[in-house]
Amino acid sequence: MSDAVPISTSLLAHTPEELISVVAQAGEKSYRAKQLIEWIHRKRVETFDEMTNLSKPLLAYLNEHHTLRTLTLARVEGSADTTRKYLFKLHDGRFVETVLIPASVSFAGERSNRRTLCVSSQVGCAYDCKFCASGLAGFTRNLTASEIVEQIVQVEKHAGERIDNLVFMGMGEPLANYNNVTRAITALNAQWGVNIGARHITVSTSGLAPQIKKLAEFPLQVRLAISLHGASDEVRNQIMPVNRKHPLDELFEALHFWRQHKKQRITFEFILIKDINDSDEQARLLAHRARNIDAKVNLIPYNTVDGLQWERPDVPQQDRFRDIVASHDVVVTLRREKGHDIAAACGQLRLREETQLGIIAAPVPEKRRSITTEIHAD
Fold it and tell me: Which cofactor does it need (predicted)?
């Protein structure tokens, strides 16, 4: 399906130069663009009519052709540990999720005082990772840059606090929506925009090697996280179909290219799934790959998803896996994830909402497969 966009174009991701063009089309002087930026990003008004120093003709033009909000907050779920999940309804009736993770533990497992927001980049996902809720109903469309920016703007308003760490680890594959994601990052990083430091913005990918190289040449020093989840092609092929198109050799060639262009250390995200990728062999292979690229490892026990029958390893096995990786002089964190009681797995809340509304059919649970025999068949 092609991208759907509102009839009225949101201005949240417009650059100053683009806003100059907007006011020029309305027959106004360029200084009006600076006033627009002030209202949009500093004062965070939600309607043009709140912009008291703009002329009536300009306000009429803006109201006719543009907008500032296209997302409606449909639900907020909070957990005992203060993680909050936001469900937003889009202009076309679909839903996306955004998760606010409290200070003291960042989404990537590093202890900090930052408030981290996990944002979505697509409605659904086409990459069909076998353990993930985001792709259970398939792919609908890309989010626009403004829809991405608006997630941050709306959460900051609701939570009453500033977001200072941003991760593209929500619904969708960010690098499959490259143009809108990088356009959003430009507005999110800019001093005239949301003003989040580039080093506090992380883009996560399931392994789109060509786009990783393209992002490496993007001028901002954003961070990169790889949803690895398998340290061998055999394991990764079973749970991540993207690996058949971009196997590990190609992925790591792209990661070496990244390291030549960016200073930040790469993070490997590795969801631990019982009897699938939690073996000692996988731990040793993961440690070898991480050392080879000087990457950090973030281990995440599997988060239960409705419609899927994967399980998380028990705590002793989680700890054993972590200790094997750490024994190879790799920086590794085992994150006992926040939000397990609010269906914090990517896409799960949206899946429930759209199923209940009849927008999509309820997913049929997949039969759980153990691939241990396949891995060790030789």
Answer: [4Fe-4S] cluster
Tell me: is residue 125 an annotated ligand-binding position.
yes
- What confidence tens digit (pLDDT) does each residue in 215-233 have? 999 999 999 999 999 999 9
118 marked as part of a ligand binding site: no
Find out whether 172 is annotated in a ligand binding site.
Answer: yes
Q: Tell whether 24 and 92 lie within a shared domain.
A: no
User: Quick one: pLDDT band at residue 365, thresholds 50, 70, 90?
Assistant: very low
- Active-site residue flag, 97: yes
- pTM of the model as a whole: 0.87
Give me the CATH number covering residue 365: 3.20.20.70
Q: Do both 38 and 114 map to the same domain?
A: no
The string of DSSP letters for 159-189 reads HTS---EEEE-SSS-GGGGHHHHHHHHHHHH
- Looking at 28, 97, 150, 354, which residue is catalytic? 97
Angle between helices 280-293 and 248-261 (to 10 degrees): 30
Which residue out of 150, 269, 337, 346 is catalytically annotated? 346
